Amino acid sequence: MSNKSTMETMIFAWLLVILTTTSPVKGKYYSGSHKIDVPTTITETHLHFFLHDTLSGDNPSSVLVTKPNRTTAQENNNIVPFGAVFAFDDPLTEGPDPNSKVIGNARGLYASISRGPDLTLLFNGDLEFTSGEFNGSSIVVVCRDPLVLVKEMAVVGGRGKFKLAKGFVLNNAVYFNTTNGDAILEWHVTVFHV
Ligand SMILES: *[C@@H]1O[C@H](CO)[C@@H](O)[C@H](O)[C@H]1NC(C)=O
Ligand SMILES: *[C@@H]1O[C@H](CO)[C@@H](O)[C@H](O)[C@H]1NC(C)=O
Ligand SMILES: *[C@@H]1O[C@H](CO)[C@@H](O)[C@H](O)[C@H]1NC(C)=O
User: Fold this and answer.
1) Where is the signal peptide, in residue numbers (predicted)?
2) Which of 14-28, 62-76, 111-125 has the highest mean pLDDT?
3) Would residue 93 count as lying in a domain?
């Protein structure tokens, strides 16, 4: 047997051992639970960037997916009537200027979720960074978003370097056009991760 095939056989044998020890018991959808040591320290990271949500123009970053077929007073002069759902792919930049350096993108859905006059969205987005130390990592934000100028939002998870992330966002609208809905939001994020 050549060295190469001996090596392949050994790797295969190890894979079998690993698979048989970590696979769930046949017929069960779970493996045994066990206690783990949690780290005594976690990492705190601050992020600062701007999100550009553009509904207007030929190349919007946010599009209406659906809305209820109703003509209520609330709907008449409302860009986001109760029940409307939007999909977005918004650039994240270093500065408030849309032409400043793009450092990531926010992708997700938001929906209008208030029946009352207090316009509220459910923001549901994965914000992935495409440059620097956190290239390829993301934070996940799922939160009620009252359409006020300054608000707090919740970071509920993340990927890559932000695995197991928890945190919060102070979100500040630096530009909001009430006619077409275009907005530029400043994000101050505090995130705790492993
Ligand atoms: C929307 O509702 C109106 C009034 O009830 C109805 O005439 C119309 O056909 C509906 N449109 C769609 C696309 O369902
Ligand atoms: C970010 O990561 C991707 C995938 O690994 C890589 O192609 C790209 O060059 C990286 N960008 C920067 C700015 O580091
Ligand atoms: C807001 O949008 C409307 C409609 O697109 C446009 O006419 C207006 O100039 C915009 N206002 C500002 C302050 O950008």
Assistant:
1) 1-27
2) 111-125
3) yes
104 pLDDT more than 50: yes
* Closest approach atom of ligand 3 to CA 56: 5
Is the C-beta atom of 180 inside 6 A of ligand 3?
A: yes
Atom of ligand 3 nearest to the CA of 177: 1
Query: Which ligand is closest to the CA of 103, given by its number?
Result: 2
Which stretches does DSSP call E strand in the chain? 43-53, 62-66, 85-93, 102-112, 120-129, 138-146, 150-159, 166-176, 183-193
Please determine, for residue 17, whether its predicted confidence score (pLDDT) is greater than 50: no
Closest CA to ligand 2's atom 11: 131
The answer to whether the CB of 136 is under 6 A from ligand 2 is: yes
Q: How far is the centre of ligand 3, averaged over its atoms, from the C-alpha of 31 (Å)?
A: 57
Given the CA of residue 132, which atom of ligand 2 is nearest to it?
14
Segment 33-47 shows an average pLDDT of: 93
Residue 113 belongs to a domain with what CATH number? 2.40.480.10
What domain range includes position 140? 43-193
d(Cα 51, Cα 96) in Å, to the nearest integer? 8
How many angstroms is it from 133 CA to the middle of ligand 2?
Answer: 10
Confirm whether 75 is domain-assigned: yes
Domain assignment present for residue 34? The answer is no
pTM of the model: 0.83
Query: φ, ψ for residue 67 (rounded to 5)?
Result: -150, 155
pLDDT for 78:
78
